[in-house]
Amino acid sequence: MALPLVKSALACSEFTRTVQPYIPQLNDLPQQFWQSATNPQALKQLYLNTNPLISAFAFSLLIVPIFLVVSEINKNYSQVDRVWSLLPTVYNLHYVAYAHAKGLPTQRLDSLAIISSVWSIRLTFNYWRKGGYEIGSEDYRWEVLRKYINPPLFFIFNVFFISLAQSILLFSVSMPTYILLLASPLVPSDNIDILFTQVLLASVFLAFTADQQQWSTSVKALSSFTH
User: Fold this and answer.
1) Would you say residue 227 has pLDDT above 80?
2) Is 30 left (phi over 0), alpha (psi -120 to 50) or beta?
3) Is-contact 64 164, C-beta < 8 A?
4) Residue 155 to residue 163: CA distance in whole angstroms
5) Mean pLDDT of all residues belonging to the chain
6) Per-residue model confidence (pLDDT) at position 174
7) Helix (H, G, I), strand (E, B) or coil at 8
């Protein structure tokens, strides 16, 4: 069974009931994935048979070597930064897709997916227009750290913090969505959820407006300074 049997919303947050029993799935997942890799139906069944928190965590570990290798090849340590605004929404959408596939109530989760996606669009757009996706762009703090940490120690720092810890952190940001998924059959969606969704969306669009005002002011100030 991929999901725990819970009888109350409070029980949805109990580690020993909702997470611990499924940790062994993490050990078997790589072998099962490779055995099913060429069979879409088997992959779908593996997806449904795996606890969604475990599969999300497995993905967060899977992408760690990508961050590490790309950063070391390019000597640019902002690889995680480029997906910082995207990965939490990817995990949220994973939980929503799983709930749909399992036939669970999804109205509250669908609202979360919309809010999370709009929030990601906002952050990603801001990162892009500040040059974050330009070739060679890197957070200045990594350059400062490299001046004080010798290369072997910085490599270890890259492995355990930049690549690993940050990836797990971005996975952890979405963990409340797992609780929301478990609670969805127990706590039906109501008008309060609709109101809350509208308030959150309004807040995001307000942040969009503030971002634009700040950007316009900064560009104008920079233009005045350079001329």
Assistant:
1) no
2) alpha
3) yes
4) 10
5) 94
6) 96
7) coil
